[in-house]
Structure formats: C-alpha cells, structure tokens
C-alpha cells in the first residue's frame, strides 16, 4: 500500500483553535482557510512510500535524538509560486533549522527549496491576505515529532498522525 508521508510538528488542539480564531479575525481573503485540523509545521516530506518504507521511517525516528523545540510566530507571508498564505517564525530558529536539515539528510531527501519553517493558512491563494487586525503573536512549545499521512477525502485533504515521538521540554522558554 502506498502512503503520502511527511514528518512535522503538530499543534495541540487548543493551539489550532487559537490560530484559527486569529486567522478568522485578522485576515481578509476571498479563499477559504486551510482546515484547522491540518495546521502543522513540515520538517521533511517523503512523498509516496510503501509499507516497508513506512516501517523504516518509524524505526529511524524511534532511534533519533530529538531536541527541545519552540517557535515564535509573527510573520505573515505569501508564496505566489505555490499560492500559499502562511505564518512564519518572527526570528530564525537554529535548533529547528538544524533538526529539519538533519532529518532531510538522515532520510536522503532532496528538495529544490531550502527549509523554510511555516504553517500554511490558505492554499490556492491568487494574492496575499490582508491583515485587518493585530499581527500574529504565537509562541509554540513543540510537543512531539509526528509522522503524518496525507489523505484525500470528500471534505478535502486531511493529515492523519501515524506515529508521535515526544520532544524534550527546555529548561526555560525564550521567544
């Protein structure tokens, strides 16, 4: 069986709700928002993989040393090429970048774009969103590395968590 897989950082349910509420109040755009249950930050994209590759990914992730990670989100952005409105960290995060690059190297993944941490808010956007309220100001303490499967449904694409590996909690959180 084939699976469309990626590794990412999932938001907790209350964080997804906070982000969805902010998005509904702060952004004006004619295109519908991404399903809030899909909010996540992609670290490594595998594409289509079979069951044996899925098993290998799970095994490697179980053995992987994982860092404590947090991100402060405050930058609204737009990529015209992929027609995506997104929220990005307001400051570079070396630990996050290093971890994503380590995952890509471990799984020998090549991507034509460098790692650019973000949470997609609107897809199929022909133009940027207009900010009509306060800018975003979210600090997220990431709880787990998550292996997701992307599935097409009648309601649109949905991301299903197949496995989670806890991340350590830092001694102190700094934005």
Automatic annotation (TrEMBL):
The active site is at 40 (proton donor), 118 (proton acceptor). InterPro entries: Cyclic_Pdiesterase, RNA_CPDase. The keyword Ligase applies. It holds the Pfam family 2_5_RNA_ligase2. The keyword Translocase does not apply. Signal peptide: none annotated. It catalyses: a 3'-end 2',3'-cyclophospho-ribonucleotide-RNA + H2O = a 3'-end 2'-phospho-ribonucleotide-RNA + H(+). Keywords: Hydrolase, Ligase. One of its GO terms (molecular function) is ligase activity. Its EC number is 3.1.4.58. A motif (HXTX 1) lies at residues 40-43. It is an enzyme of class 3 (hydrolase). HAMAP family: RNA_CPDase. Hydrolyzes RNA 2',3'-cyclic phosphodiester to an RNA 2'-phosphomonoester. Belongs to the 2H phosphoesterase superfamily. ThpR family. This is RNA 2',3'-cyclic phosphodiesterase.
